[in-house]
Amino acid sequence: MSRVREIQGKCVDPADFAREYVEYVSAVLKSIDPAEIAAFARTLLAARDRGATVYFMGNGGSAATASHFANDLAIGTKTADRHFRIVALTDNVPVLTAIANDFGYEEIFVRQLRLVLDAGDVVVAISASGNSPNLLRAIDFARQQGATTVGLTAFDGGTLRATVDLAVHVPTFQGEYGPAEDGHMVLDHLITAYLTHAVRSGT
After folding, report:
1. Where in the chain is the domain with CATH 3.40.50.10490?
2. How far is CA 70 from CA 27, 89, 126, 176, in A?
3. What local confidence, expressed as pLDDT, does residue 189 receive?
4. CA angle (108, 58, 192) in 5-degree steps
5. CATH topology for 33-201?
6. Which of 69, 70, 135, 156 is 20 to 30 A distant from 78 in Cα terms?
7. What's the pTM?
8. In the structure, what pLDDT confidence band is assigned to residue 82 with cuts at 50, 70 and 90?
9. pLDDT tens figures, 31-62
10. What is the distance in angstroms between the CA of the first residue and the CA of the last residue of the chain?
């Protein structure tokens, strides 16, 4: 049984449920490897320094996280002299639906990357399961083109965690999408907060 289902089974009062859920998510966050977070932050800084573009992608709730990540990094860290080049492959609905309709859903990200990806760019896939075919196909293409690949994963990490150059793993029980996506959003705000200070202070 997952921890969330256990909490659901024993907490009738919403305050008790909230307390237990927050405690569990706090434990999940504490179990993320800080070295993985640091490596991700350094990867993004290095991309900025060389003028590379960082592409974010995901499905469902992870698509929303990809868009949120792109917003925060592109706008929140912006400086007058140099900025992060950030694109969310989730944001153009006409393009997504056209590709899905004409070529299949598994192609929605890779066909976008084929038009714009350069060697040295960074491709970030966000997936709780780590097994979404459209993400894996795009990551395979990115690796073939000489891009750096990053996976933000959960559950057991799936194929994505084993495939990317760098994984930042949020350890949760299988199927616990809420805590997994909570963790990914905290990574968004943590990374953005760090990079905002780093680029503005020149560190």
Report:
1. 33-201
2. 27, 10, 12, 24
3. 97
4. 135
5. Rossmann fold (3.40.50)
6. 135
7. 0.94
8. confident
9. 999 999 999 999 999 999 999 999 999 999 99
10. 45
